[in-house]
Design a protein that fits this description.
The chain is an alpha/beta fold and 229 residues long. It folds into two domains: 8-18 and 107-227, Rossmann fold; 20-101, DNA polymerase, domain 1, CATH 1.10.150.240. Helices cover 47% and strands 11% of the residues. A six-stranded parallel β-sheet has the order 3-2-1-4-5-6, sandwiched between helices. 34% of the residues are buried. Keywords: Hydrolase.
């Protein structure tokens, strides 16, 4: 579908190539145990995951700071679980979470296979809202950093997806026109709507079981990319 149209493919990282939820769960398993926080991991994640999702939305919209995101998502989770914990320990957990998260390297199924397939034929890039200090570590620990020519993050751009500025910066860095570019990501709001606002082609990797929509095609396994490129 896009084979003769695009020269450059832009990927989101978290929830698209890098299996954020799996790596995040392993990180929490480690740091909660090491700090003797006696909550069941599954109970913690059940409460934390939707809270984290909402706080990332607020962060994308510029309504909260990075430090507020890191602290409040944990504070509210423990409050909802009814678990008594000091602010100091929350700060420790927040720092350790960032420190250890990038040491886990699980990718979504078929991620490396698809990158191997694409690399000889397209220029590949990353556009991510993730924190600059750990996104490069994630790419290196999962051994996919060499696939990508440019890695654009929100701290570099000064704005977050879906703001069109970050997509324009990515196009400028890659020296490519939007009609020759494809964005692949998991978030309808941040990746698909953001990329479409500046004229990129889009493909929605539905990692979050979002409902069908009319904006672009939706895939459920990264191997399906091969049928488009």
């Amino acid at each position: 579908m896009f084979k003769n149209l695009v020269t450059d493919v832009f990927f989101d990282l978290d929830h698209t190539l890098w299996d954020f939820e799996k790596n995040s769960a392993l990180t929490f398993q480690k740091i909660l145990a090491e700090n003797s926080v006696n909550v069941e991991l599954n109970d913690f994640l059940r409460v934390y995951i939707p809270i984290n999702f909402e706080f990332w939305k607020l962060y994308r919209e510029g309504k909260i700071s990075k430090s507020d995101l890191r602290f409040q998502r944990l504070k509210i989770t423990f409050d909802k679980l009814g678990y008594s914990i000091s602010n100091e320990l929350i700060d420790v957990l927040s720092d350790q979470y960032i420190e250890h998260l990038s040491s886990y390297n699980h990718l979504f199924p078929n991620a490396t296979e698809v990158l191997d397939y694409l690399k000889p034929h397209y220029k590949l890039h990353i556009i991510t809202n993730g924190f600059q200090e750990i996104q490069h570590k994630k790419l290196r620990s999962s051994n996919i950093h060499n696939y990508f020519e440019h890695i654009i993050n929100s701290e570099m751009a000064g704005v977050k997806k879906p703001n069109p500025i970050i997509f324009r910066l990515a196009l400028e860095k890659a020296k490519v026109q939007p009609h020759k570019s494809l964005m692949i990501g998991d978030s309808l709001e941040a990746d698909i709507m953001g990329a479409r606002s500046v004229g990129l082609h889009t493909l929605h990797f539905n990692a979050n079981n979002e409902p069908k929509h009319e904006y672009c095609d939706m895939i459920h396994d990264l191997s399906e990319i091969k049928s488009y490129l």
